[in-house]
């Protein structure tokens, strides 16, 4: 009985108060508010093509920024994607240098301008709704590498 009450309460909150349930955005919302001087990646810019991504279609993520210190293989990036910012559908951590080739870099990644793009397929099996991606990174010294929050309606 308690479980039913909790589930009903969550549904009511989602339907009436959750900001993501309101009118769908015509594009993804990208929040780099944690892009301050304490992060190793500065002046981060991210875009999607198409925006928003469409189920069953390829989409491209393009990013650019300025890396203020060298990154080694001990730096990691974590991506958590949640459906309606509640149900985790992906929780993936990887070492930054394992994917440096995707932006035309080798490890260690030198300080300076960074840019690159990755194209991937948006699964057609995804449920329609809001998806929130939290992307955070830790550098080899335990410092803050990057932080981004992306909200898209698919």
Structural class category: mainly beta
Beta-strand percent range: 35-45%
Q: Which strand order do you get reading across the main beta sheet?
A: 1-8-7-4-5
Radius of gyration: 17 Å
Question: Termini separation (Å)?
Answer: 33 Å
Key attributes of the depicted protein:
3-stranded antiparallel sheet, single chain, mainly beta, 154 residues, disordered N terminus, 10% helix
How would you explain this protein's 3D organization?
This protein is mostly beta strands and 154 residues long. It is built from one helix and eight strands; from the N terminus they run αββββββββ. It has one helix spanning 2-16, and strands spanning 29-31, 41-49, 58-67, 76-83, 87-95, 112-121, 130-138, 144-153. The radius of gyration is 17 Å and the shape is globular.
Give the SSE layout.
Blueprint: H1 2-16, E1 29-31, E2 41-49, E3 58-67, E4 76-83, E5 87-95, E6 112-121, E7 130-138, E8 144-153
Antiparallel strand pairs: 1-8, 2-3, 3-6, 4-5, 4-7, 7-8
Can you describe this structure in just a few lines?
The chain is mainly beta and 154 residues long. Helices cover 10% and strands 44% of the residues. The protein has one helix and eight strands; from the N terminus they run αββββββββ.
